[in-house]
What does this fold into?
Amino acid sequence: QVQLVESGGGLVQPGGSLRLSCVASGSGFRFYTMGWYRQAPGKQRELVATISGGGGRTTYADSVKGRFTISRDNTKNTVYLQMNNLKPEDTAVYYCNCKTASNEYWGQGTQVTVSS
It folds into this structure.
């Protein structure tokens, strides 16, 4: 069982930045692929970014490439999402995701609102 706790969401103006954090429980963090997903009102949950266990491989949705950066610190069991040049269309609940060899886990979500 892996528990995920996100933080760092909030209200930001267009063009601003936020950094989301997700802390995972357990001792196997460095082996897990971690990701961030988001869900806007009335829309399906979508993939934002993923990062491999060692951090060497990352993937991004086309809509966030060049603006968002996913990273991880395996010594702190933490994955980050640095979001720059935020746009109103980035407004959503952001969820941390963990994929182990046999299971998938989700955090409770953190709200990001981009508005002037």
